[in-house]
Amino acid sequence: MNPTDSIPAQSESSIDSNKIQLLNYHLPFLSEAMQSNNARLERNMEATWEHLASLSAVPPTNPVVKLIRDLGGSTVMENIIVKRDQWKKKREYILACAGNVVGIGNVWRFPYLCFKNGGGAFLLPYCFFALFCGLPLFLLETAIGQYAQESSITCWIKVCPLAEGAGYSFIMIQLIARIYTLILAWSLLYFIYSFRDPLPWATCTNPWNTEKCVDITSANMTGIQTDNLTVKWTSGNLTTSSVSEFWERGVLSMSEGIEAIGTVHWELLLCQLACWVSCYFCIWKGVRSTGKVVYVTALFPYLMLAILMVRGVTLPGAWQGVVYYLYPDLSRLTDLQVWLDACTQILFSYGLVGGTLITLGSYNKVKNNCYKDSLWLCLLNSCTSFVAGFAVFSVLGFMAEKQGLPVDKVVQSGAGLAFITFPQAVAMMPLPQLWAVCFFIMLLMLGLDSLFAGLETITASVIDMFPKQMRRPWRREIFLTIFCLVFFLIQIIFTTQVLNGCVM
């Protein structure tokens, strides 16, 4: 007689109860094995399952015993779905969200808009839209993600299924925004060149320079003593500065027309590859890796900004630039364009309607105090923009004094400020390499945060849409590898001579 025949058969409900108890009891152990991917831990777990099976009061053919044995060894890695991650510490979320919303636009866009739209008077419409538009929308997106515990597409199924299309529009925005890597590639290329002595954009002895190039470090150009030189410098018809030629011919290598594709700029292509690789490793393990990276990428830019601001306000002519930045012109408040620019800047700098706030908030605990978080993050973003204006316009004031020009003649916005005006001003300072390194590493860190937050939004959306297929070991890493590789290959065209300038 078979010894196992004496064991009474168990009912189906009893078997299901045993399954549930076994899974609940050993779920932490399984989760540890899944996350560590440790071979020794896996073998120990297999031995544990076999030991439990030998002690079980049911025959080996019982479904419970089969379940135990099936869950042993390598099959665990195939059959268990990984639980959705959460931030280990509250400050990891704060730093990640701060790094996302505080980006390059805070440095190169807000100060120019403030100067252009009435100086200190611009702060009135800016604060109005920050209070009644930016903060409520910021809180709304964060709360949706935190409540649903889902990313920017699947969260709408729990909130309002009819609005699911909004989630897909967020993903389309993020896909288009991957061109942001090209700006990081430019910054990285400038950062590498910043270690040269002399700075390559400060002289006219480089292969990309033309006979019309004017050396900004020469005595003639730094002094601008005569009216003829001033005309030549400001008109742009007779001569071009070495900074402009470095940007247009050295970095962008722009072709004569759209019909001439030209060649790939290999240095820029390698910088773009480095940006994609860095972004990949920032989020390849989800919030477990992102939570560690943001301690550097979110905090380091503030150190660099503080250094640049202290240096800027101590330069001759700095306060002339600060006055231009903040001097109020109340008559500009009657212009509708001023209010439109203020609203646009709030939507842009707060990272609204892009899905990133929903995704980052979804990794919070459900009962997290998102009200306080949203208030402090919005305040941090606006204060950073305001302080960055001092760093930028103090340097512009110094540059204007060195050239003998009014401040409004040297002010630019966007890429022109970051890659022409500021490098030109840095080249006029003592120890130009040091200040160039500080400025461009700040741009790199500011841009990298925003870039990998958008990539996390895309990745988390795909994983949440297909949890059974994607929440398994190495599925996330494989998806990220394929995504980054495909977009890198697509963006090779933007490093050619014809499209590199079009993006700018």
3D architecture notes:
With 504 residues, the protein is an all-alpha fold. The protein contains 26 helices and 2 strands. It has helices spanning 12-36, 39-55, 63-70, 76-79, 90-101, 105-108, 110-116, 123-148, 155-159, 164-176, 180-193, 219-223, 227-235, 242-251, 266-283, 287-297, 300-313, 318-326, 336-349, 356-362, 370-403, 415-427, 432-465, 467-470, 475-490, 497-503; strands at residues 213-214, 240-241. A two-stranded parallel sheet has the order 1-2. Helix 5 (90-101) packs across helix 23 (432-465) and helix 17 packs antiparallel against helix 23. The chain is globular and about 65 Å long. It starts with 11 loop residues before the first helix and ends with a helix.
Task: Summarize it.
With 504 residues, the chain is mainly α. It has helices at 12-36, 39-55, 63-70, 76-79, 90-101, 105-108, 110-116, 123-148, 155-159, 164-176, 180-193, 219-223, 227-235, 242-251, 266-283, 287-297, 300-313, 318-326, 336-349, 356-362, 370-403, 415-427, 432-465, 467-470, 475-490, 497-503, and strands at 213-214, 240-241.
